[in-house]
Each structure stands twice: as C-alpha cells, then as structure tokens.
Amino acid sequence: MIKVAVVGATGYGGAELVRLLSGHPEVALTALTSRTYAGQRLGDVYPNLAPFDYTLEALDVEAVGRADVVFFGLPHGEAMAHVPAVLERGARVIDLSGDFRLKEAALYPRWYGFEHTAPGLLAEAAYGLVETHRAELASARLVANPGCYPTGALLATLPLLRAGLSDPAEIIVDSKSGVSGAGRTSLKLAYHYPEANEDVSAYAVGTHRHTPEMEQEMAAAAGSPVRVLFTAHLVPATRGIFTTAYLSLRPDATRDAIEAAYLEAYGDEPFGVVCGGGAWPHTKATYGSNFAHVAVRVDERAQRAVCLSALDNLGKGMASQAVQCMNLMFGLPEATAVGAPAAYP
Amino acid sequence: MIKVAVVGATGYGGAELVRLLSGHPEVALTALTSRTYAGQRLGDVYPNLAPFDYTLEALDVEAVGRADVVFFGLPHGEAMAHVPAVLERGARVIDLSGDFRLKEAALYPRWYGFEHTAPGLLAEAAYGLVETHRAELASARLVANPGCYPTGALLATLPLLRAGLSDPAEIIVDSKSGVSGAGRTSLKLAYHYPEANEDVSAYAVGTHRHTPEMEQEMAAAAGSPVRVLFTAHLVPATRGIFTTAYLSLRPDATRDAIEAAYLEAYGDEPFGVVCGGGAWPHTKATYGSNFAHVAVRVDERAQRAVCLSALDNLGKGMASQAVQCMNLMFGLPEATAVGAPAAYP
Amino acid sequence: MIKVAVVGATGYGGAELVRLLSGHPEVALTALTSRTYAGQRLGDVYPNLAPFDYTLEALDVEAVGRADVVFFGLPHGEAMAHVPAVLERGARVIDLSGDFRLKEAALYPRWYGFEHTAPGLLAEAAYGLVETHRAELASARLVANPGCYPTGALLATLPLLRAGLSDPAEIIVDSKSGVSGAGRTSLKLAYHYPEANEDVSAYAVGTHRHTPEMEQEMAAAAGSPVRVLFTAHLVPATRGIFTTAYLSLRPDATRDAIEAAYLEAYGDEPFGVVCGGGAWPHTKATYGSNFAHVAVRVDERAQRAVCLSALDNLGKGMASQAVQCMNLMFGLPEATAVGAPAAYP
Amino acid sequence: MIKVAVVGATGYGGAELVRLLSGHPEVALTALTSRTYAGQRLGDVYPNLAPFDYTLEALDVEAVGRADVVFFGLPHGEAMAHVPAVLERGARVIDLSGDFRLKEAALYPRWYGFEHTAPGLLAEAAYGLVETHRAELASARLVANPGCYPTGALLATLPLLRAGLSDPAEIIVDSKSGVSGAGRTSLKLAYHYPEANEDVSAYAVGTHRHTPEMEQEMAAAAGSPVRVLFTAHLVPATRGIFTTAYLSLRPDATRDAIEAAYLEAYGDEPFGVVCGGGAWPHTKATYGSNFAHVAVRVDERAQRAVCLSALDNLGKGMASQAVQCMNLMFGLPEATAVGAPAAYP
Q1: Three-class SS state of A107
Q2: Which CATH class is domain C2-145+318-329?
Q3: Which of A311, B295, D96, D169 is 20 to 30 A away from residue A126, measured at CA?
Q4: What is the pLDDT of residues A280-309, one digit of tens each?
Q5: Which residues of C touch A184 (CB under 8 A)?
Q6: Do B48 and A340 touch (CB under 8 A)?
Q7: Which CATH superfamily is domain A2-124 in?
Q8: Which chain B residues are Cβ-neighbours of C302 within 8 angstroms?
Q9: Nearest-CA distance from D224 to chain C in Å?
Q10: Is B78 helix (H, G, I), strand (E, B) or coil?
Q11: In chain A, helix, strand, coil percent, each to 5?
C-alpha cells in the first residue's frame, strides 16, 4: 500500500482527492491536515464523506513526511514553505497550487505577487499534465499539478501546436468556469448563490496568473515563443471548465491534417475524447470524472482553428489529474481509482 | 463473472446502471438494448460513456435471457410483457419499473392505468429495498426495484414505524425531486430548461402512483394499515430527492426513543447516514452515490415527528440501489461498484 | 408626490423597494440609508441600479422622519429602536422586519430571541397582507409587512379557513424557498454557490420564527386557535417560495364548496391568481412580480385539502407587497408601480 | 393610443413583447396571433400573463394590417411572406426575425438557407439598433430588429470601431447565451433541463447566421470591411448573453483614448452602462431589462482590446429593444414601458 498524506484536505481540491483516494485499492491515507478543522471528522466538514471515518489533524511536517507521497492542497504561496522539508524526509510531493508550475522564478512576483522561496526546486518539478509529460512524471520526486484553466487550454491546443500547423505567436484563450473554481474558503459576495446564479461575467482579462503557465507549456509544444491573451469567465455551474481557444493557421494547414493531429494525439490516451462529426464537447459529459473532451473546428474564412475542450475543473483540472500522476509515479495503471465515467445527467 | 444484460439502456436509469456496472469487477455486460438507438454506440447517445465501447442492440428475449441477471429499465407497463419469458430462460431479473412493486394486482388499474398481465409473479417478487428486505433479496429470482419517491419516504419513516412510536393511520409525505426523475425520452415543455430553471411546482397531489407502494411497505413495517397523502414537487436541480414526512407520535414516544430508533436502524447499514446534532440531510451530499442521508426531528407542540431524507433519485433511488440488490443476490459485498461517496460540491 | 425614505436600502428587500419605487409616478425618494455603504452610490452596490443616480446616506432619524412614509428594511430587532421616533415626527412607517407582526409581545423572546422595546405599538400595527386587512391598512400609521413564508401560507389557506371548511386545530405548512430569502449580507457557507446549487435541504423544523405569525393570522381567519407545524426548505433558485399546506377537512366540506371559496376569495383581488383545471402554481410565473398563484386540491382518501401557493419572496413576499400597502395608505390604485407581470421565462 | 399587433405572440420574444406592452401607457394591443394556440387565452399558455385578459387568434393579414404597428415574432423565413402585405395596408412593421437584417439578398441562401422573397424591402429596412440608427429609425416604415448575439457584439465593439482605434480586419466574437435563446417551441434534447443544467458547450463555430449581420454593422461603423469569427456557447442560465470580443489595436491607440470612446458613446444613451474601475458587466444586472452593460479592457502585451457586454437576450437583445424602436418611431420617450431596472438578484 502507498502511504498518502493530504495537506489541506478541506479545500475543494483536497476533499476531492480524499473522495477519489477512498476508493483506491493501493492507497492508505495516513494523514489529512486542515488548519481550520484540525481535530474534527472530515465527514462533519464534507457531508458526502460522512460515512467515512477520517479525522483531520494539524499540519506536522514530520508526520506527513513519513508518507510515500504528499498531496498539497494549500493556497498559492503556501506549499513552497513546506515542500522542501517534506522532500527531505523522503516523501514525494504532488502540489495542487501554482507554486512549482513556472520554470522561471522571476515570473512569480509579476503574476503571483510573491517572491519564490524555493526557486531551486523549479527546475526539478515535473509539470503534471500526463498527456505531455508522462515519462518525466513517472520518476518525478516533485510534481506541479496543472492549473484548471491551463489543463483545458493545453489539452485543446497542444495537438495543433505540436503538429506545427498553427502560428503560435498569439493565442486567444476564452474560458468559462463553474464557481467551484473559486474554492470553498473565500465566501465572497460574487459567489453568494443569489448573485452567482443566472449570471455570467468575465474577470482578470489579460492578468490571470494561469497565463504564463499556458505560455510556458504551449511554447514547449510549439518550439517557439507563445503569447496568450487569456480571459476567464464565471458561469452559473458548480463544476466544469469549457475552453475556446483561437489560433491562426499556417497557410498550408488542411482540415484533414488538423483533425488527424487530434485523433493521433488522443488515440491512445485513456482520458482524452475527441469529438468529431456532429459531436461537441460538453462539460456535463465530464462531471466528477478525469475525462477531457476535445474538439477542433476550422474556420476557413478566418483561417483560424477554434480549439475546444471541456473538463471538470476539480477532476481532470485538479484532483483526479493529480491521482493519475500518482498512479504513474508508483507504476500503477493510470486509471486506477479515476477511471469512472462522469455521472450523467 | 456475472453476465449482465440491461434492457432499456438509454433511459437515465439504464445509462446510470451501465456507468456503475462499467466499474464492477465481477460483471460482464453481455447485452444493452434500446428501441430507439439499436445499432448505435451507447457512447454516441450518452457523451459521458463516449470513452467506453458499448453497442446497443434491439431487445431479443432469447439473447438477454442468457445473462445471469437482466435489469429492466423500461417504462411502466412494459417489463411485465418480457419478464416471464426471461425468467423462464433461467435469468434472474431486477426491474426498475413499477410493474412488480405492488403485491395486489387489483391496485394496478387504479394507480397505473393498466391491467397486470403477469399477476402470478407479484407474490414472488422481492421488494428491492435492501435495508428492509435483505434476506429475501439474497435468494430472489425477481426483484422489484423501489420507486425513487418511495425509497426516500421509506428510509425516512420506517425506523419510526417499526419501533411503534407513531400512529400510522395517516402519513403526509411531501417530496421534492430534481428534473431527471422525468426521464430523458419525454421532451415536455415542463422540462424545457427555460421553463424548469428557477421554478418550483407541485404535481400529482394525492394521485401519484408511488402512493400505494409507500402504503404497502409502511404498513408492513407498522403492522397495521397506513394511508399516505403524497405530494410530489419539481425543483430546479438535475438529481436528488428530498423527502419531508409528517407522522403523529404516540403519546409515550420520547425524543430519545425516537432518535435511538434511527441510530439503531442505520447503525450497521452501509448506505444510511443519520444526521443528528446540527446536521441536516442535503441532496448534494448524495449526488451520484448510493447513500441516503436521514434525520428525524420532533415537534413537541404538534406531537409530530418530521422525518427527512435526501438521496439521489438516479442512485439510491434507482440504479445504484439496483446494483446493491444484484450484489446481494450474487453473494458479493453490497458496496461493490456502488460504494463511492458523492461528488461534492 | 409622496416623499419616501428607505432605511436599509442595500439589503435585497430594500434594493427591490428602490427598483420598484424608481418607476412609481407619485413617489419621490428622499432618503436611502445604509450602514455599510453610506456615502456611496447605490448603483455601485447594486449593478442593476447603476443607471440610476441614488446616493446612500447614514441613518438620521430626523431626516428620514421628514418623509411621508418610511420603509424599514433592517434585520429583525432593529426597526423597533427607530420606529417610535420616526412616527413621532409624523411619518408613516412600513416595516419589512418581524418587529411589529406579532400582537403579543410575550412571543418575541421565545421566537425572536429578544424582548420587545416598543410593545405599545404592537396593537396599533396593521398587518400588511392587503387581501385580508385592506380597510385597516388604508388608514394605518404603522404597517408590519408580512414575512415571506407567512404570505405564502396565508394566501394558500385563508380562503379555506375563513369558509369554515377545515379543522384548524393543526395545519402543516411545508415551504420551499429560493436562496435570496437568506439576504445579501450574511455570506454563509450554506449560501456559497457551489454548496447551494443542486442542493435541497430543510431547516428550522418547528422552530422558525414565522410560525407564530402564521398562527395569529390563521386563527383570526378561522375564529379559533390554530397550531402550525412549519418546515422551511432551501431549494436551488434565487427567488420564489412555493408553499404546500395540509389541512383536515370538515366532514361536510365538498370539493365544490372548497373551490368556490378560492374563486370568491381571489375573484376581485388584483394580485391573486387561482389555478384550476390542469393548471398549477409555479414560482416562475411570479418572478419579480407582486402576483401570487394559488390552488387547492382535495384528497378524498385522506379527507384533506392540500393548499398551494407560489410567489416571489422578494416581491409579494416582501417589497412589492409593501408598495401595494403604501399605495393603499395613500389612496392610490393598488397596482401602481407593482402591476407588471412576471418576467417569463 | 397606438394600435399594436403581435404576430407570433407565443414565442418567448412575442410573449415578452406582450409583457412589456401590457404596461405601455400609449399602446392598445389590438391583435395577438398564434398558429398553435389560436382561440386560447394567452394567460393559459404563459402563466405569468394569467392575470391578463388576452385572447390569441389566427394570423389574418387584413386584421393585423389595421394596426399602426405590427411586431413579427415568427421563425426566420416566415415574416418575409407576410410583411409586404402588412406594409401595403399602411401599418409599420418591426420584425424580430432575421428576414430584413441583411442588406445583401445574396447572403440569405448561404447563411439562412433560403432565397429571400421580398428583396426589394431590404434596402428600406432600418436596422433596429437604436444606439447607431436613431435618426433613420424615427421615420422607418420597416424595422429589422437586431439579433440577440449581434446586439451584444455591436454594443461591445462599435465605440472602438467608430473611433478608428482598432484594426477591423479580423474580430473574434465569443458569446455565451442563456438557453431561452433557443426559443420555446423546439423541445430538443439539448434544452431538456437535465441535459442543459450544469453544462457548457459551444455550437455553430464560424457558421452562425448572426455572423454576416455583425460584419455588416461593424463594417459600417469602421468604414472598411470586417471579418468576424463568431463562436456561440450555451450556458446554464435562462436569460442573458455575455459577449467577449477580441480586436487588434492600432499602434497609436492609447488606453485613455479607448476608454474615452466608450464613455462618449454611451454617455447620453439611456440604456448603455459603461463599467469602469473595478466594475464588470454581469448578465444578472440586466435581467428582464433593456439595459446593456459594456466594458473595454486593454491588454498591452497582446496589443488587443477585449470588449465585453452583458444584456438580456429577450430584453435589449430582442423584445424591449423592439419596444424602444417603436417608441422612437412614434415620437415617444424611448424608455416608455422599458425603463425599469433589472430585477436583482
């Protein structure tokens, strides 16, 4: 059995990890930490987990360091304070925050508003998008689990970028997210049910901290620099991110070649579904699951590809993707405990 | 491996069965039937199942009869035409419709509007509420899976009725259901998104066909006749039934005895959660799962108990409850493939 | 022009008052107060009012007392501290809180948790349900605007009670409310969008402070004491209350007499709609409006009437009802500024 | 009084017209037609209109032609068959369909799939976007009411285009619409509540018939050809369209100049609200109203403007905009009967 600790088990991401890991046949949960609820039963904080007997404790680096792998579900800027000590104790780490996603430490002050305190680990951290970093992840000691928006944007665009069929100089990413992406702990008026229900709005146009993460991974796929203009939107749903990305096509890019690039990219992927023919990605088709539905449409008038993806921001966009990484790191079938299809409808 | 057929696999109940059974380690799906979509991939009809390779076929009693167990997910009044032939071929049957729920054939014309064509099977059919019919179900050849509303009403009230703490002469059941209870095939204006969203309404006051089913099972628990006044409501949610039942208390019923009856009833049940203290049942805590959350509140002014339950109408109220039955019938742990906690939030 | 002040203009009730009064041809808004947002534009706090030029100020009894009528939209227990002084200055008062709804001061400690500090005004306060207190309201100096739940329960049941067709000894009221009933200022986890969406739950079984208000008004209609068992539910909608009330029928009550009682009660009412035939009350049909849709169904097996109503908790259940009162108090047509049909869908 | 007929009064647009016109002090509704419901009360078809006494009749060109103005709320391709005859009878016409929006008849076969049968009227038809065609509309005999998506896209981008601050060669328009945009009569699975709730998807990428309408009006504003790449999305809301448009900026366009263009464009407009500072457009702020909230954000890294708008697709995007036109055509204050702020929350 793999000994697993979850630091920050009472955020939406942490609790989703526990939900998934509770059914993992090779995992023993050895520690679940919470600053606010230490000493309480997790089932009293998350009613879906009421039937399960998990107790929350305060974070003790010594204790969590005895696990084989530690998931961090803390707010941005907090994991980096604890991760070095945990790694030293021999545990492997999967961090759900943005703390280890960017390779360039200098980007943190600008996009995250803090100086990185463990910049030496950035080069080592493997970016946890299994579809593109599988080999590296298998042996990784430290994994930076992708952001929810980048997961959607990357799965939608990377096949096109890798195939060299588009001009990567400027990519417009327009994403629509359910409200659970805002987390559970910050009770802002914007997420108060009467305000968020039946509302659509945009935020963080061009300033969202997920932007450099997209650019980094897209550039790696394209082999040349990428500039992303990213707009995030809130839609009245609990879960789900739908991404619409606009890329310029190279003059010689044919519809056939473009569609083939997607079929090839996801043909062997256990969690990538390409929607062709009359089918479209729908966030509902991914609810609670690790699947991502992807499509590409070509607009010949504009000589543009419109790249679409749908996923669950707490699933493939966060917790189940992290479990998929863990499976890979420990030599298990990737789909262990995360292979269930979405609940539908 | 248990060979399993699902007749009517493209209704919400049938598709939920496939979703659950796709992860069942002891099940081989040998036939999935659909009148409308025969010949198509199930994954083209249900996008959450797109990653799975299931093909739909027309109903062939011979073929499905070769399974060890056949789930029927047909509209009321249709299963009774096929079940006798399937049983003759040696398969066991779990029927999700109301066709075998009532012991008295004479009730069908009044409540369902049809004459029963296989009344000889009614006595044999085991009522699939595991919490009260476990022994009988283990050896049953034919199971009548409970209705979604009755499941909620029975789980809420049976502990009180069995303990003899209430007067069963009249029970008021006020239930609130998500719209998926209306099924997928009937596209009525009432379920058109713009009409159903942000709307609450009642229907079928005192005339709902689930009424005699509640009365039958409540009377069995109470040991005396029960008259139920049942009101169904539609609320703007996809899944979930919340039930509020009002029962008169016997003069000597104490709060302690009442609460004890619930703790005792569900103490060893794998899927019953009693909400005490400050906790309340929430449908969200059961989304996509086989769990039911139950609570009892005592109003001393009115000398009444208010019995509450929350469950997923497609889960414990339909498909996962049917799988729980199947596990029991085949000697497997009850929670196999249906033990996952609800996705939350 | 009627000079109108709104004290507490930034709660949902206060802002809805301003929305309605902004279109009232006989009203001049002379003061809008807010503790939290004094000095700001109301349109910066409520984006729907952005096009309107209203400025918020701190509460100054002297200033608001110069109005002809002052609406109070403060939390329970706060209006009673200011109302006497405002009345002394000659203004009339319509209070949206519960502070003046109960005739018996002794009920406040038990149900509201405070001692009433202006008990001398309770006898004088007119209960603002126009349908039953029209004459009294026309000349009232102080109006206690009904609670949202009581408005629904009373409109559903009073015709039956007044007609003497039911046994008033025990009435069960089961109400389903949208989340805006919780107000805007208390950002609790229960109202966080991801938690409240796709959830149904009950709260305050038998302990809700709207209970004695229902009992008081029902008893007045029935001419004998009434005991109400009230259960409140939260459903995933922004606006709307749906009420289902269960009453025992007298042995001689006929369906015809019952239905006639409703048609008579609402035949001349501008805002009461009786749903007969195949029609049912729907909260959506009342969204943003002052209309209430009402129906009665008779269950002969149970010898019970099931009384139904649907309304907008911020409309007929709060702000537009208060404007209807004001119109009556100032001799205007009742529907002035509140006669618009609901937005649909 | 202006005599008004509504042809197609039982679609969402037609019923919204009736809702608004029922409160118009200068309007007498002389005919409401419906193919499906002729002979019935409109209040039996639309429960929000139950309190109003309107009867539906079959379309009789003679009869509706006696009105001063006829609103057409028929599906695309049907109004053009009746409009010439109605105009001949001396009535003015406001058509809510796309039949008269495009100046070039040759575009209809490609985008709408039909040959235009009254091409001679296209030149005469005034495009009903009051903000840009006010003078022309005042005297128009035939008005083509804008599409819901174009209204959002045009209000978001025209100030920038008119000011010459952007390069109009390619504009990307990414819109998110509530489900009521699909209408009431087509009960498709995609709009079945359980399927549409908690789902986000895209449709009609690059092929939506609103595309040439956007291009026509944007080109007129820019003074040079415009190519629009338009993607429509469905989000789980009843009403509301949120538009995010991406435009390239000219090298000399400053943030100050851009923001000034919006303030100038909407400074005197009764229904345009510019969101600056920390404010963002929200569809909720426009629910049921004729207001549009607009914002522009500049991304200097990408040298792009992101132009945002929020409106009610059945309000400013359809029915209330048509009433605003009518007011203008008859010399009334534009806000008559459509000046109410949105219901909020």
Answers
A1: helix
A2: alpha beta
A3: A311
A4: 999 999 999 999 999 999 999 999 999 999
A5: 189, 192, 194-195
A6: no
A7: NAD(P)-binding Rossmann-like Domain (3.40.50.720)
A8: 170, 206, 227, 229
A9: 33
A10: coil
A11: 35, 25, 40
